[in-house]
UniProtKB/TrEMBL annotation:
<comment type="similarity">
    <text>Belongs to the complex I NDUFB5 subunit family.</text>
</comment>
<dbReference type="GO" id="GO:0005743">
    <property type="term" value="C:mitochondrial inner membrane"/>
</dbReference>
<keyword id="KW-0812">Transmembrane</keyword>
<keyword id="KW-0809">Transit peptide</keyword>
<keyword id="KW-0813">Transport</keyword>
<keyword id="KW-1133">Transmembrane helix</keyword>
<keyword id="KW-0472">Membrane</keyword>
<dbReference type="Pfam" id="PF09781">
    <property type="entry name" value="NDUF_B5"/>
</dbReference>
<keyword id="KW-0679">Respiratory chain</keyword>
<comment type="function">
    <text>Accessory subunit of the mitochondrial membrane respiratory chain NADH dehydrogenase (Complex I), that is believed not to be involved in catalysis. Complex I functions in the transfer of electrons from NADH to the respiratory chain. The immediate electron acceptor for the enzyme is believed to be ubiquinone.</text>
</comment>
<protein>
    <recommendedName>
        <fullName>NADH dehydrogenase [ubiquinone] 1 beta subcomplex subunit 5, mitochondrial</fullName>
    </recommendedName>
</protein>
<comment type="subunit">
    <text>Complex I is composed of 45 different subunits.</text>
</comment>
<dbReference type="InterPro" id="IPR019173">
    <property type="entry name" value="NADH_UbQ_OxRdtase_B5_su"/>
</dbReference>
<keyword id="KW-0999">Mitochondrion inner membrane</keyword>
<keyword id="KW-0249">Electron transport</keyword>
<keyword id="KW-0496">Mitochondrion</keyword>
């Protein structure tokens, strides 16, 4: 990578100043500058580093796929006015970022999402086709999910769906509940109308009162009427 003459000169100078502490200190302070100058990649090395796959194997913190997609979309929107041949602020090629995001979307939405479902449905349609009705076989009666048209529908109705009988009973219970609530509302509206028409009271809120409390109320009223001031002096 480096010429042999340059390496020999560096070794010779290092051995010559090895016994001088001042020169060693100066060399140690100048070593970072020399490293940045001598170890800088050439023009042929930068494209190789930029187009390599080393960034794929870099250890990154855990991140959700949804957040990665959102960040990629935001990065696309913010970099639309830049040229695709330029480098972004992160040191990566913008075109590479867009291609990587497209690969992620294709893999998660098509590779393991839509494509397997389409292949499964196509296979069932070609191999099995649509089901046909026939006479009941002898023995046990067929189940409700066996009346579906395709094997996929039968599988879904067997493990996730409900039978027609259960669906019908659910509808009956639902409409029965709606009918009862509607009847209650009609009765309540009729009662309120009669109250306003006859100037009546709310009969359903009436609570019976014991006669003991009636007698106590009368006694308390008489006491308030006939009582005198405690500190007053009245003639006999």
């Amino acid at each position: 990578m480096f010429p042999r003459s340059l390496v020999a000169k560096l070794l010779h100078r290092t051995s010559a100043i090895g016994n001088n502490p001042a020169r060693m200190t100066l060399l140690s302070k100048m070593s970072p500058l020399a490293a940045r100058t001598l170890l800088r990649p050439t023009a042929f090395t930068m494209p190789a580093l930029r187009e390599s796959h080393a960034a794929l194997f870099r250890k990154r913190p855990a991140q959700l796929i949804v957040n990665r997609i959102k960040n990629t979309i935001k990065l696309k929107e913010s970099l639309q006015h830049y040229d695709l041949t330029n480098e972004s602020a992160y040191g990566t090629d913008v075109k590479y970022v867009i291609n990587a995001s497209d690969d992620v979307c294709h893999f998660y939405f098509i590779g393991i999402g839509i494509l397997p479902v389409i292949l499964c449905l196509t296979y069932n349609h070609i191999v099995y086709g649509t089901c046909e009705l026939r006479d009941y076989p002898e023995g046990e009666a067929p189940h409700y999910w066996q009346f579906e048209r395709t094997p996929v529908r039968q599988w879904w109705a067997k493990w996730f769906g409900v039978s027609d009988i259960e669906h019908h009973e659910r509808n009956l219970a639902y409409f029965e509940k709606l009918g009862i609530q509607a009847r209650w509302r009609q009765i309540e509206q009729r009662v309120k109308h009669l109250e306003g028409e006859r100037w009546d009271y709310k009969a359903w809120s009436y609570q019976p009162v014991s006669s003991t409390w009636v007698d106590y109320g009368r006694w308390h009223a008489l006491r308030i009427r006939d009582q005198y001031e405690q500190h007053g002096h009245y003639p006999q």
